[in-house]
């Protein structure tokens, strides 16, 4: 069983929110997510926050943190899902966060970011956290904008290594496609094998190896 350390204050110099809901989200993720998705989700937060910091985008870490940490929970419940995994995950996140005391309007922002991270296009009109999460997941899955995270990449992957992420994530997307038609995962699955094969992560981007 994975150890459950306390919520870190910083990851690769990126501040992590320390409020009660952020701590509850961390504990939830430790319980609910398999190791490969847990590490992926934390990395996504770091990449998103690093992009926001570098580009002067004013984001709310208390929104971005749960959006990143919970964005792929729908991949863990595919046999029980009634909707595409990103929409299922958005609803799980909203219910959890409201139950932990987050305002419903803020929980809706988190849920929206999760729903949009698989969308074809996300703009600032959708919320800065939605844009940052969308870009961050692209970095972690396909290595897009890889050079934009050079200052935090090595430290983050040391603490939260990729391990077998590519293989397990591809299998999860394939499971959804086999289970439910008409989801964004269909298009992703068509692009993903080639994208993973050409990803800069395969050429030493992960300091821990694969």
Short descriptors:
9 helices, single chain, globular, two-stranded antiparallel ribbon, 210 residues, mainly alpha, 2 strands, 59% helix, Hypothetical protein af1432
Descriptive notes:
By secondary structure, the protein is mainly α. It has a single domain, classed as Hypothetical protein af1432, CATH 1.10.3210. The protein has a two-stranded antiparallel sheet with strand order 1-2. Helix 2 runs antiparallel to helix 3, helix 3 runs parallel beside helix 6 and helix 4 packs antiparallel against helix 5. It is globular and about 40 Å long. The relative contact order is 0.15.
SSE order and pairing:
Blueprint: E1 10-11, E2 14-15, H1 20-32, H2 35-55, H3 61-70, H4 85-99, H5 104-116, H6 128-142, H7 153-159, H8 165-179, H9 184-197
Antiparallel strand pairs: 1-2
Helix pairs in contact: 1-3, 2-3, 2-6, 3-5, 3-6, 4-5, 5-6, 8-9
Task: Give a quick rundown of the structure.
Helix content is 59%, strand content 2%. It has 210 residues and is an all-alpha fold. The longest helix has 21 residues, at 35-55.
